[in-house]
Amino acid sequence: MTSPVRVAIAGYKGKVGSVLAAAFQIEPGIDYVGGIGRGDDLATFLHEKRPRALVDFTRPTESMHNALAAVAAGAAPVVGTTGLSTADIDKLETACHAKHVGGIVAPNFAIGAVLMMHLAETAAPLFDAVEIIEMHHAAKLDAPSGTALSTARRLAARRKDRPFTHSKAEKETLAGTRGGEEGGVGVHSVRLPGFVADQEVIFGLPGQTLTIAHRTTSREAYVPGVLLAIRRVTAEPRFYRGLDQLLGLRND
Residue-wise pLDDT tens for the chain (252 aa)? Predict the structure, then answer.
């Protein structure tokens, strides 16, 4: 019989971490060994608890330290914290390879959100213009969200030498009204109480639009994806950049 996977959480008191902690305690095949918070002794915790995976939902300023410490201790990092740079992710992947442990950094662990991005990529070559509206809770630290930024970059890449057209206002009477732009993709961030994490991708052609949307009604949406990631990265020493790679929706 296979032994349960020992799992710890960095940020276990946070909005996502607390939901994951509750789910792990009743999940078959998962041995939740505890959580680590800001100011706690991470090295001692990892030495004493010896998790096989460390799930991180903290802040960008803390996440890399936590993930690299996990790798040094032989634990696979499962990182849901957004705002990490490409250089940070490269560094973490290199560390995982050197220690022969698996790992994953994902802008979103909700399976529906991953499919939303995949479907948007499919539509991208067929439309001339697209804008992204992402809506999150008021306490979210970064804007745009990691999911929105990843979506925009992937859509732009699908167009190759035919960039999207992004119309500029002839007169912008309120600065920033047209949002940001990434590769011809307009990006707008909404921060309001009542939202968890929603995103719409709106494509346009003359006479028609296509909207691909994902709604998150609770943070339980992240549990299946995180569990899938834990089981995969502890079973093989492979590093993933996104849940879509793990699901076989993207091979790069």
Answer: 678 999 999 999 999 999 999 999 999 999 999 999 988 999 999 999 999 999 999 999 899 999 999 999 999 999 999 889 999 999 999 999 999 999 999 989 999 999 999 999 999 999 999 999 999 999 988 899 989 999 999 999 998 889 999 988 888 899 889 999 999 999 999 999 999 999 999 999 999 999 999 999 999 999 999 999 999 999 999 999 999 988 888 766
Please give the class, per CATH, of domain 111-214.
alpha beta
Domain residue spans of the chain: 5-109+219-246, 111-214
Q: Regarding the domain delimited by 5-109+219-246, which CATH topology (the fold level of the hierarchy) does it fall under?
A: Rossmann fold (3.40.50)
Instruction: End-to-end CA distance of the chain: give it in Å, rounded.
Output: 34
Catalytic residue among 136, 160, 188, 214: 136
Helices (H), 141-196: 146-159
pTM for the full predicted model: 0.87
> Does the annotation mark 140 as catalytic?
yes
Known catalytic residue at 166: no
Q: Which of 13, 203, 247, 2 is nearest to 110 (CA)?
A: 247
Among 15, 47, 97, 140, the active-site one is 140
List C-alpha distances in Å: 65 to 21, 107, 238. 21, 18, 20
